[in-house]
């Protein structure tokens, strides 16, 4: 056979690669046990065989390439890509082992040394070019792609390292032969000389060896938007490859990507669809800094499930799943059994096979690097060689039996998008403007006949090639709802009165929709497109902020098909060679997302047009760039009209008749009462926009008065409540059912105005337990048979209605039509709403024990949010502000706050009752507070026992410690308009001890003896009044202080703190609205403060510093200028 040489050479190369893999494994074992003499001898022997193996491989590669050039290779092999792939795999292993031998001082081959000596002698004796023997393989090529530069540089240098004496001029020649495209253009101006070889390398390395440019390319790849779907293994694998390849490349460039994990994971999360994003949030939990490795592991775990999903819906799906399922129909609705035409459809699904049939790696062939790097024609031949389906690239079935519903995204034909290529038309088949083509018209002879039915199949394909006309398309950027800009493809159409956007684009931009009643008409004013609303968009040219346009667009499912219909090769049109196009990919078929009509078209046009030769498109200048429109010299012969008809065999009608023989009769005889109930249902049943049915109860008489049903219902509910309190598990299940009932909208709270409605019927309810049930162990029963005071029940006042559930025989026969059956309990069957929804009522309430668990949690949440805002710890700046407010409002300079304490009455606690019993003869908790000039709480201390006096409470309280720590107050200052230096103080009543920073009034005896002391007491009482005002206002607002609080002491502490925060919040709002008014109410004494009792004084020693400070204030207030 002519292809035997090629196949033999390929087999030998594969055996050599396998042998090198064995050598590589032996080198790993030697690294693990370097002290073993046996392993060293073994690996040394293997290393000496490398050179003969390489010579064999190079000879076989030449044989394979010669077979391809002489057209003696196997059918389907037209280039040397396969031999290049084999030699690339061999080189990777060979150079790895050669480096290993060099590091560990192994001799490659004795023959190599002799050859080197001979080569050296030849070099010294002659300068013949034959002395420089390069490896027998092709040099790598480089076209200017940044990501390929490093591998090209290393491999090219490694190949030339085998001939160190090769002149630089020849090295330069090899270098130019290896360059293409942009890279070749950079060095093409250099003449072929030895000195220019170094210059060429400097130019290339300065252009492509820039680490910053390489990093930018990899960062762009990482940050590029992608769509990762939960059931699409290809998109998940592509995201994994993108992350691993680019992060590894950045690490090689000395970047520490693991420190970017929070930023990168935030970007990658946006690529996930809703389902994958939800799963990721469940996995990451409270981990605020997930690593990239965790994200990749998450994707890998879901990659396996996506592969299984793809396989289950394509390869493993039985043939009869895609067929329409036969449903049960009553006999009165028999379909006509005459011979009817059926339309056959096939569906596809991306099949993920493991391992890859091409490289045996654990991935799909669609993501295989060896496969995707080939040209479309080569990929087609690979698919044929491995017996793959050309529709889905799956194995195990042919394209005729493929269930895939997808087609090529470019031409919409029945093959995979990776196998799409534009065929080159031969001169004999090239279509011109006036040609037509009829492919086939065939009617096969019938194989058999049944009666008068004949199975026929006909296919007619006609096509009329048309000249391709370019439409004016542009790439524009549209602002999404979150402010980000998205690039969309727009079509400029001056013949449209309105602008449009596709449904898919609106969803991607998350734009707000508005109702629209626009009707889109085309030829002959016929409505052709359904408008799904309208929205407002803002657009701008790509990469620019201005000019920008805002316009209303109508939403349609699709604007047009891919434009242009087929790929075209850009022509050499001289008139547009230097133009910046608005749509650089105008020649590639792509979807249209926007259509700009005459409402925007004049606004985007600029001065200037470019015309070419007849048959060449016209270029218009717009704000988006130059747009192309008009005819081209290309013709489209791929769009054809196909008519397929398949008349099914009569066997289908025979099967239908067979099943109809076993069907039960569906004729149903209704009683007059059932007919009346059906008439009520037919005349009153409607459906809400939410999908819920509205049904009226079938009463015997319109809105009957049933009597008192509430009394009996409440009695039974109280008995049920007692039963539930004895069984916590049962109570929790019952409460869960009621919460579900309320959440689903099956019940709602009765308004107070409807409580006395005589037409209400209160339904008693109870629970039924079924512990042995596998699904529903608790079932709540609503007893509508309970009689009211009138001796009639709800069920007795309504029609029974016809039977709704079918007989068991019908259920069993119908079950035979389906392959899989599911059994489950029906939940909340026959629930409905309607006019009579408010006619039904029942009693239920949340248990007191449940409420007691809600209150502490709510208080803790409010306290956590409000305390930092409305009760912050004051600093010296705050104290200065408060001192200024006291001087301005209450005529007491250097005063920062007023202090007072109250007993908050509580119900006697179960534990430590004596600790909370105070001198007034009741139980209480002490609230000690410092209040500013605006009647707001500054510092509070809550939780002291009621039996304690003010001295003990103040000394151990937070504010007592603040007063002792003199550094918290601002430094001493002079009183206004005087030279009297005093510290900043707080003012209190007789219950507190006088100190340097706490002023209290003079005693009654002292006040009567000295009028100056009486003036001081007046000023102090005026300033101290803010504390009484604050407590009075808080009691008036929060009624919980009206009576003793029946909660645990620790919960009472939280109640007091929350009330103080809410009081400050309300005071801020009141002061903002009434800046000139000091107090909310006129008579503060009328505030209901009977539940807050003042503290009792317990005495204490007064420091002499306190007397001196108070005397200075007394002297200041008694001067003539400041006499009251």
UniProtKB/TrEMBL annotation:
Xref: Pfam families: DDE_Tnp_4 (PF13359), DUF1759 (PF03564)
Span list, region Disordered: 316-341, 422-449
Composition bias, Polar residues: 423-443
Keyword Lyase recorded: no
GO BP terms: DNA biosynthetic process
Cofactor(s) listed: a divalent metal cation
Keywords, alphabetical: Metal-binding
Segments traversing the membrane: none
Example GO molecular function: metal ion binding
All copies of domain DDE Tnp4, residue ranges: 899-1064
PANTHER family attached to this UniProt entry: PHD-TYPE DOMAIN-CONTAINING PROTEIN, RIBONUCLEASE H
Protein name: DDE Tnp4 domain-containing protein
């Amino acid at each position: 056979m002519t292809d035997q040489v090629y196949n033999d050479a390929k087999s030998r190369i594969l055996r050599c690669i396998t042998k090198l893999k064995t050598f590589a494994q032996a080198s790993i074992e030697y690294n693990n046990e370097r002290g073993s003499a046996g392993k060293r001898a073994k690996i040394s022997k293997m290393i000496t065989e490398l050179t003969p193996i390489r010579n064999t491989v190079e000879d076989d590669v030449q044989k394979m390439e010669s077979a391809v050039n002489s057209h003696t290779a196997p059918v389907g092999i037209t280039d040397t890509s396969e031999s290049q792939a084999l030699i690339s795999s061999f080189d990777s292993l060979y150079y790895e082992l050669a480096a290993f031998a060099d590091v560990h001082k192994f001799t490659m081959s004795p023959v190599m040394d002799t050859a080197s000596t001979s080569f050296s002698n030849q070099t010294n004796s002659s300068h013949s070019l034959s002395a420089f023997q390069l490896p027998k393989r092709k040099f790598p090529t480089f076209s200017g792609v940044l990501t390929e530069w490093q591998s090209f540089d290393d491999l090219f240098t490694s190949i030339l390292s085998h001939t160190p004496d090769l002149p630089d001029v020849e090295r330069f020649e090899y270098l130019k032969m290896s360059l293409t495209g942009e890279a070749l253009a950079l060095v093409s101006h250099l003449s072929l000389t030895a000195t220019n070889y170094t210059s060429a390398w400097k130019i290339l390395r300065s252009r492509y060896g820039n680490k910053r440019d390489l990093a930018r390319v990899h960062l762009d790849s990482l940050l590029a938007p992608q769509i990762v779907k939960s059931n699409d293994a290809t998109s998940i694998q592509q995201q994994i490859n993108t992350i691993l390849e680019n992060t590894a490349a950045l690490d090689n460039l000395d970047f520490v990507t693991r420190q970017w994990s929070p930023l990168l994971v935030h970007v990658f999360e946006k690529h996930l669809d809703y389902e994958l994003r939800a799963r990721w949030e469940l996995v990451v939990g409270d981990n605020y800094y997930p690593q990239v490795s965790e994200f990749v592991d998450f994707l890998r775990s879901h990659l396996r499930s996506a592969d299984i999903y793809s396989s289950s819906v394509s390869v493993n799906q039985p043939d009869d799943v895609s067929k329409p399922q036969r449903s049960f129909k009553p006999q009165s609705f028999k379909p006509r059994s005459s011979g009817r035409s059926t339309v056959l459809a096939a569906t596809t699904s991306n099949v993920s096979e493991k391992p890859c049939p091409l490289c045996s790696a654990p991935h799909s062939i669609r993501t295989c690097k060896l496969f995707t790097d080939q040209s479309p024609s080569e990929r087609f031949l690979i698919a044929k060689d491995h017996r793959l389906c050309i529709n889905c690239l799956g194995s195990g079935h042919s394209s005729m039996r493929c269930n895939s519903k997808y087609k090529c995204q470019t031409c919409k034909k029945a093959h995979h998008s990776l196998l799409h290529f534009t065929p080159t038309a031969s001169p004999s088949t090239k279509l011109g403007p006036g040609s037509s083509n009829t492919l086939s018209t065939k009617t096969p002879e019938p194989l058999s006949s049944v009666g008068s039915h004949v199975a026929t199949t006909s296919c007619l394909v006609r096509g009329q090639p048309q000249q391709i006309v370019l439409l004016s398309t542009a790439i524009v950027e549209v602002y999404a709802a979150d402010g980000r800009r998205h690039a969309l493809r727009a079509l400029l159409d001056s013949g449209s009165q309105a602008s449009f956007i596709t449904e898919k684009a609106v969803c991607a931009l998350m734009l707000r929709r508005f109702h629209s009643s626009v009707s889109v008409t085309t030829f002959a004013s016929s409505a052709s497109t359904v408008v799904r609303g309208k929205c407002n968009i803002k657009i701008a040219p790509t990469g620019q902020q201005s000019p920008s346009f805002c316009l209303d667009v109508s939403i349609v499912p699709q604007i047009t098909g891919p434009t242009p219909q087929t790929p075209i090769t850009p022509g050499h049109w001289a008139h547009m060679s230097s133009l910046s196009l608005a749509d650089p990919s105008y020649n590639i078929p792509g979807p249209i997302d926007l259509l700009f009509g005459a409402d925007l078209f004049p606004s985007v046009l600029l001065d200037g047009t470019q015309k070419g030769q007849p048959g060449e498109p016209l270029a218009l200048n717009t704000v988006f760039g130059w747009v192309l429109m008009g005819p081209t010299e290309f013709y489209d012969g791929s769009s054809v009209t196909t008519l397929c008809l398949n008349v099914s065999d009569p066997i289908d009608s025979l099967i239908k008749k067979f099943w109809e023989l076993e069907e039960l009769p569906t004729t149903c005889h209704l009683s007059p009462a059932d007919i009346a109930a059906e008439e009520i249902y037919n005349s009153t049943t409607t459906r809400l926009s939410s999908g819920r049915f509205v049904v009226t109860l079938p009463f015997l008489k319109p809105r009957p008065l049933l009597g008192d049903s509430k009394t009996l219902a409440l009695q039974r509910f109280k008995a049920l409540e007692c039963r539930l309190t004895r069984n916590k598990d049962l109570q929790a299940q019952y409460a869960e059912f009621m919460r579900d009932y309320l959440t689903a909208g099956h019940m709602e709270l009765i308004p107070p105005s409807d409580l006395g409605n005589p037409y209400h019927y209160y339904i008693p309810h109870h629970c039924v337990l079924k512990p042995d049930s596998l699904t529903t162990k608790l079932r709540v029963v609503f007893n509508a048979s309970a009689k009211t005071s009138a001796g009639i029940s709800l069920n007795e006042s309504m029609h029974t209605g016809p039977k709704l559930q079918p007989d068991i025989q019908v259920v069993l026969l119908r079950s035979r039509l389906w392959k899989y059956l599911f059994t489950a309990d029906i939940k909340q069957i026959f629930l409905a709403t309607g006019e009579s929804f408010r006619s039904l009522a029942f009693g239920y309430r949340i248990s007191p024990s449940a409420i007691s668990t809600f209150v502490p949690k709510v208080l803790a949440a409010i306290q956590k949010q409000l305390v930092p805002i409305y009760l912050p710890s004051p600093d010296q700046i705050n104290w200065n502000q408060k001192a200024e407010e006291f001087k301005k409002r209450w005529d007491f300079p250097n005063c920062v706050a007023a202090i007072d304490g109250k007993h908050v009455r509580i119900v006697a606690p179960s534990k430590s009752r004596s600790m909370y019993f105070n001198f007034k003869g009741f139980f209480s908790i002490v609230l000690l507070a410092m209040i500013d000039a605006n009647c707001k709480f500054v510092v509070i201390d809550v939780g002291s026992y009621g039996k304690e006096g003010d001295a003990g409470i103040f000394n151990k309280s937070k504010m007592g410690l603040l007063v002792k720590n003199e550094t918290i107050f601002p430094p001493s200052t002079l009183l206004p308009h005087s030279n009297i230096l005093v510290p900043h103080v707080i003012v209190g009543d007789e219950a507190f001890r006088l100190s340097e920073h706490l002023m209290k009034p003079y005693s009654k005896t002292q006040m009567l003896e000295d009028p100056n002391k009486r003036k001081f007491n007046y000023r102090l009482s005026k300033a101290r009044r803010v504390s009484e005002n604050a407590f009075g206002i808080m009691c008036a607002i929060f009624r919980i202080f009206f009576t003793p609080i029946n909660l645990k002491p620790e919960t009472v502490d939280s109640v007091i703190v929350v009330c103080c925060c809410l009081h400050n919040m309300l005071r801020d709002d009141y002061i903002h609205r009434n800046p000139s008014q000091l107090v909310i109410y006129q008579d503060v004494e009328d505030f209901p403060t009977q539940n807050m009792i003042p503290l009792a004084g317990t005495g204490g020693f007064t420091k002499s510093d306190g007397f001196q400070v108070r005397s200075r204030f007394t002297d200041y207030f008694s001067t003539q200028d400041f006499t009251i």
